[in-house]
Structure formats: C-alpha cells, structure tokens
Amino acid sequence: MSGHSKWHNIQGRKNAQDAKRGKIFQKISRDLYQAAKAGDPDPANNPQLRLVMDKARAANMPKQNIQRAIDKATGAGGANFEEITYEGYGPGGVAVMVSCLTDNKNRTASAIRSAFTHSGGSLGANGSVSYMFNRQGLIEILREDLDKDEDEMLMDALDAGADDMQADEEMFHIYTDPSSMTAVRDALQADGYELETAEVTMIPENKTEVPSDKVSQYQHLIDELEENDDVADVYEAGFIPEA
Fold it and tell me: Is the distance from CB of 97 to CB of 234 less than 8 angstroms?
C-alpha cells in the first residue's frame, strides 16, 4: 500500500503542477493574442508582443502554443475568433464575469452555461454583473529582491502616472486609468522595474465572502472555467476567508 500511496502523492503533485502550468499558459496566450491584435503581429515591430513572448519562453511555453495565440489574432489558418463576455452568479450569489475567445460561439456558450449550472450558479444576461466591476489598468511588481518600501514604490508609481497602489507581502499592485496603462508601464520599465503583470482588467468594486458551505462549489466553478480552452479571463467578486 505504501508504494501505491507514494505514487498517488507524486501523481497528485504532478496534476497540481500541470494545472498551475496550464493556467499560466492560458494567461500568456491571452496576453499574446491581445498584444498581436492591438499592434503589429511581427514582434520586431511590436515591443509589447516581444515582452509577452519573452515571458512565454521563460515559462517554457511550447513554440506551437505561442504561434497559435498569435495566429488567433491575425486570423491565420482561416479561423475567425470572437471575443465574448459572459456574466453570471456563482454559488452564494458571487458575481463572476468570463471573457472568452472562441471560433464557435455555440460550443462556448454551452460549456460556460454548464459550468455555472454544475456548480450551483446561474448564467445571467449581459449587464447583470458587469456594473459591479471597474475597468482598470493593473501593473504588478514582485517585492522579492526589490529594495523599495511601500512609500518609495508609491511615489515612483505616481510619478509614472498611476492612480493608486496597494501592496501585500508578495506584490505591489499599481492601478491606472485604462488609457494610461501603456504609458505607466513604459515609464516604470524605463526606471528599471521588472513587471510581473501589465494589463487592462476588471476589478470588482466590492468583494463578497463565499459562504463556508459553498466554498467547494465556488472553487469547482472557477477551476472548470479556467480549464476551458475558450476562456481567456475569469473575473470574480468573491473571496474565501482564511481558516
């Protein structure tokens, strides 16, 4: 039994690592698509695309995955991809927005609806929860090995054109107007900062605590959505209190 238990533990860790890697690749694919869509698909003429491609290589993302994300933006291969956002309520009435990139709306809509239904949530109409979120630029910088305290980082962020900053033990979270995100990003990079994240995203105005008896269902919903290849982003307004 001990041999089986050891194999089971190793397999469990591998599955967890694979899931984490999949989510990282998913996020990078979304960033590649957006960078290629917004500018020149040739990285030689698109600094943002080069930045994301460097991040993809650092994460050991396969070359074919990188090219597939860029092809989606350019329409290479004849596929026509559309960006669609779904809105709904997860277990406990928590607002959830799902941003998708798909070449088959019927397939995607069915999968998203099933994810909400399986987890005790419900898919809503357009506008049902989006008013609870604000569109903002978000830039994140790891605190590790960075010789800056919160006051110094805040001043540098404001000087670069940011609106606000929050910090936790691991990260500085810098918020900007969506139209200013690129300029703030470039200014911080020019100052020598290495950015972990630089994107326009949806930030909930308020967070709702997930009821203790709904935590498992809520986590299942988020996991199922994030594992869907058509899903680019999941924005959630829930939080799970620490035990």
Answer: yes
The DSSP-derived string for 146-194 is ----HHHHHHHHHHTT-SEEEE-SSEEEEEE-GGGHHHHHHHHHHTTPP
SS3 content of the chain, % helix, strand, coil (to 5): 50, 25, 25
Give the pairing of strands 208-209 and 238-239.
parallel
SS3 15: helix
pLDDT at 101 over 90: no
Neighbours of 91 (CB within 10 A): 23
Token digits for 89?
């309520």
Q: What pLDDT is recorded for position 5?
A: 47
User: Cβ(83)–Cβ(98) under 8 Å?
Assistant: no
The CA distance from 217 to 139, in Å, is: 30
pLDDT, tens digit (0-9, with 9 covering 90-100), for 143-175: 998 989 999 999 999 999 999 999 999 999 999
Instruction: Please state, in angstroms and rounded to a whole number, the distance separating the CA atoms of residues 72 and 222.
Output: 24
Strand 197-204 with 133-142, pairing: antiparallel
Token pair for 44: 């030689």
pLDDT in tens, 171-216: 999 999 999 998 999 999 999 999 888 888 899 999 999 999 999 9
